[in-house]
Amino acid sequence: MTAERKRNRGPSAGPENRRALIAAARVVFAEDGYRAPLSRIAKRAGVGQGSLYRHFPDRKSLALAVFDENLTELELVVADQARTLDDLLGRVIEQTVEHSALLEFAMLERDDREVGGMDERFRAIVDVAVQHEQATGRLAAGVTTADVTLSVSLIAALVSRSPADERRDLALRSWRLLQTGLGSR
């Protein structure tokens, strides 16, 4: 029996492979945590480990790519003026529940400059939502971006330490409680 070799499609496969690797990382990190074998991510993406390392030289760069996509999604939410802080935080909660392993990464690498840049980008996204909500009267005037990001951090900490089947419910219950304190309507 001969093993069937995959045809090398060359550089033209690069963007597709990158997307497949990020999608696979989302699933594998969610299933096995941040320290999951990178070989498992490559296999799930249908690419060789060489391709994985060409796109992402280390685990951190792969996790940052997943975070980047998450933040891009959140930027699209706040760009839509019809969306509310609840819409944004609903999506943040979903991302937190789906990708709690990446919270482990963020904690392990919190002093890293690139991870810090993601944190700054998240605060900027929240700031847009807070300003919009205050302008429309749906958020108490004294609530700051720091208050909202602290609330998200509290929820993320709870979710990351909870059993997978309880995460969504705990996150939603926590957000409802925090809404009262933030004066969100």
Automatic annotation (TrEMBL):
Keywords on record: DNA-binding, Transcription, Transcription regulation
Bilayer-spanning residue ranges: none
DNA-binding region: 37-56
Cross-referenced PROSITE patterns: HTH_TETR_2 (PS50977)
Keyword Chloroplast found: no
Keyword set includes Transcription regulation: yes
SUPFAM superfamilies with a match to the protein in the record: Homeodomain-like
Domain HTH tetR-type: 15-74
InterPro entries xref list: Homeodomain-like_sf, HTH-type_TetR-like_transc_reg, HTH_TetR
Pfam families the UniProt entry points to: TetR_N (PF00440)
Protein name per Swiss-Prot or TrEMBL: TetR family transcriptional regulator
Natural source organism: Microbacterium terricola
Origin organism lineage: Bacteria, Bacillati, Actinomycetota, Actinomycetes, Micrococcales
